[in-house]
Amino acid sequence: MRGFLVLLLFTAVAGAADKIEWHYTLPEAKKAARNARKPVLAVVFEKGNRDSARLEKYLGKSPVLPILKHYICLRLERSENVALVAKYNLKYSPSSVIYSAVGTPMKLILGPTSAAKYAAQLKQAVEKHDQLWNPKRPKNLPKPGEARADGPDLIHSGLCPRGCPSCGPALTRALRWLVRKQNRNGSWAKPKGERVLRTAEGKQVTRSIDRIDIALTAVSGLALLAEGKSFATEARKAKHFLMDAVREDGVVCLDGGKDPIDVVYAHFETPLAAMFLAEAYVHAPNPELKAKLKRIAAYLTKAQEKTSGAWGYAPDFRDHISAARQGWRLLATTQCCLAAINHLRAAGIPVDPEVAKRAARYLLTCRGKDGLFVYRPADAGRNGHPGTTAAALHALLRSGAVPAAKVVASWNAYRPRYRDLHTFGEHESYFLLFTGLLMHGQSPGAAHEFHVGFRNRLLHAQKTDGHWDDDDTKGGSVFATAVATTVLQLPLGNLRIASQRPVVPTVREVVKPYYVGVPHRSCRVKAFRHAGRYWVDLAVSLDRPADLSYLRALKLGLEGASRELFDVTDGQMSIHRVDVYPNKGRWDAADILISKEFYDEEKNPHPFAHGITRLSQITHLRGPIKGKTLRFGQWIMFPPEGIHWADPRYQHVLAHELCHYLFGAPDEYGRNNGQTYCPCIQGSKGFTELCTKATHTDDRHKHDCWKLAKLTFPLLKVPDNPDPGPWTPPLPIVRFHR
Q1: 169 preceded by cis ω (within 30°)?
Q2: What angle, 0 to 180 degrees and rounded to 10, lies between the N-to-C axes of helices 167-181 and 444-461?
Q3: Is the four-CA dihedral 353, 356, 362, 368 of positive or negative sign?
Q4: SS3 425
Q5: Quick check: 311 and 304 in contact, CB under 8 A?
Q6: Options 3.40.50, 3.90.550, 3.40.390, 3.10.620; which CATH number does 526-736 get?
Q7: CA atoms within 13 A on the CB side of 322
Q8: Is the bond preceding 144 in cis, omega lying within 30 degrees of 0?
Q9: Contact between residue 231 and residue 224 where contact means Cβ atoms under 8 Å apart
Q10: 3-state secondary structure at position 73
Q11: Which of 10, 36, 182, 219 has its CA 20 to 30 A from that of 111?
Q12: Could you read off the pLDDT of 434-474 as tens digits, one per residue?
């Protein structure tokens, strides 16, 4: 009897322990959450709703019930919480809102779901909350100079790719693989594919449709030239093969084009051959090669259709394949021919400027409705493709026939999408080549952004023997390997035309500038007005010694941040001079601190951030502002490890922190849930603009970022429509002190 009573008592206690303890007001639940350091699960029920009743049953059963002990549970009625329903757009019943222990929203669960899925989402949210609330510093932080990768960590040196422990061996393997595939006559070939065709006489014949030896040889030759001198013999053999393939009329094709199939891709192969031969001519000029290049230039001029400005697939292409008679002019052939003309002109070969102008006009008619480029003008009502856009922009911007401002819309639609290899679409390797050429043709920052964005993706896709597979099978492994090797070697600068990019000058130093007043007395900002622009002087202090490779990477980071600040302010503000001090030099006066104190919870409550800005407790501002008072930064802090300054992502982080520091602009994203509240640099990684009154969407903050910037620096002009660039300001002066 006594045992039965004990068992009954135990069951009653267990049942009481498993019972959910509900709170019924949000302030009460948030207070309990702060005290218990637990997240809040706010469940919004609706009376008479079948799914709400089902969720209520789930909450009292396994697998959901055990997880609820990690939450402060809040029960709300939909009809009594109209404001909360509208704020989070809780369109379905039931819905759940998960808040962190400090009251910020972390996750929404909308509509009915199964008990298992609901439990999984609750578990995921509580694990994320525990990680944020009790962060642990990673044991194996990456060393300075390392880059994050889609796979095992790859270590890159400041001399990447030459001498780089990851890029160097990979490129050597790839080039040796290419050389092994070279034929005795100096060419490269792709395994043939056969197709039955019908001739004009009605007879059926079997033809090889994949004879693209000219294109493969041209791109492989570019890869060898890009390396330097190690494969000079093989590059010279490729050059002589292509020179012998130049016909009297200037077409570059196999066997003189006796078989019509050999010239089907002539307006791809001839331009690619011209680009390689132009590079070879610049490396080693000789009269015979110059004569061949003049012949190619004359042919490309003659082959252009004068009315449209386009090139088709090949000379007389419509005569021997009737299926291609409709729509034979297209962007891909036109941009390729225009790119070749740009190369020929850069090599000193005269070409009529009207050819480039006509081609540019045609390419501009191929813009889709989203600003990207499509294959034909007839497709202008559709969205464009990143690959075709890269090719078209490279040809347009190198031609000089169109002002950069005319293609800037396409540039900005294209840039956020170029990072993924698989977004190029068909002919992936072909468009990767032109993306590399495009980015290297802009500025050092754009070139470095491309190189960092692609090198690890490419290196992880490389096979053990050194080659790359051609995913869409259009060009074959030789083509894919030659392209990957070429774009990885562009920073070496050995392709004197393709690797050429604008030289960005360094600013002229202003001696003893007159600094404007700072927002508050504890602020360290040093800014002055000069030549119609605000300039900022910064001091960076490290709490340790720094080697030369780290300092060089830091210099790249500061230059990239200055470029973004220039973009953010539409050319009205940039960095003038930066003094870098190791071993806590000028620690109490520095604007940017690089220190292990970043991991101190008192100084930084969010150690998993990339950078922080310490806010002053003083809210004084030069101009009066109604509503909430503003606090400006006292300093910016970064951790000593894990920040790769050469990577544009971290340059963006520094520019974001400078907007806190200089303008008092708040964060406009969800700190814990990652939600974007405003389309600007303070709210999204993909934006390099400040929000205006018209674009400000973060209801948590009354004032837009441009208004705050103008209150701090009154001579700034707020743009009606911020100019997206691209911007290339002069480089700041960076000095390293002992």
Answers
A1: no
A2: 70
A3: negative
A4: coil
A5: yes
A6: 3.40.390
A7: 6
A8: no
A9: yes
A10: strand
A11: 36
A12: 888 888 877 666 777 777 778 888 888 899 999 998 877 77
User: Distance between CA 29 and CA 234 in Å, rounded?
Assistant: 74
**DSSP bridge pairs for 593:** 541, 637
Q: Do residues 632 and 661 touch, judged by C-beta distance below 8 A?
A: yes
CB 607 within 8 A of CB 137: yes
Weakest mean pLDDT among 253-267, 371-385, 542-556: 253-267
**CA neighbours closer than 13 Å in the CB half-sphere of residue 50:** 0
> Contact at 8 Å (CB) between 706 and 718?
yes
Angle between helix axes 428-440 and 331-346 (nearest 10 degrees) is 40
β pairing state of 154-155 and 146-147: antiparallel
Least confident range from 336-345, 377-386, 600-609, 652-661: namely 600-609
Comparing CA positions, the residue from 604, 673, 698 lying closest to residue 97 is 673
DSSP characters over 523-591 = ---EEEEETTEEEEEEEEEESS---HHHHHHHHHHHHHHHHHHHHHTTTSEEEEEEEEESTTTTGGG-S
Fold of 212-492: Glycosyltransferase (1.50.10)
pTM (predicted TM-score): 0.61
Amino acid 234 reads: E
Classify strands 204-208 and 592-594 as parallel, antiparallel or unpaired.
unpaired
Q: Which residue has better confidence, 626 or 670?
A: 670
Output the CA–CA distances (angstroms, integers) from residue 481 to 224, 424, 428, 477, 494, in the order listed: 11, 17, 12, 6, 18
- Please write the tens of the pLDDT for every residue from 66-98: 888 889 999 999 888 888 888 777 878 888 888
Biggest CA-to-CA distance, the chain? 113
592-594 and 72-77: which strand pairing?
unpaired
Q: CA angle 196-201-203, nearest 5°?
A: 35
CB within 8 Å of 16: residues ≥ 6 apart:
none
Half-sphere exposure of 12 (CA within 13 A, CB side): 6
Categorise residue 348: left if φ over 0, alpha if ψ from -120 to 50, beta otherwise: left
Q: Which residue intervals of 636-730 are DSSP H helices?
A: 648-663, 705-712
Token pair 């294209």 is at which residue? Answer: 414
618 close to 520: Cβ distance less than 8 angstroms: yes
The helix-helix angle for 476-489 and 428-440 (nearest 10°) equals: 10
Distance CA 88, CA 79 (A): 15
Domain positions in the chain are 20-133, 212-492, 526-736
What percent of the chain stands above pLDDT 70?
79
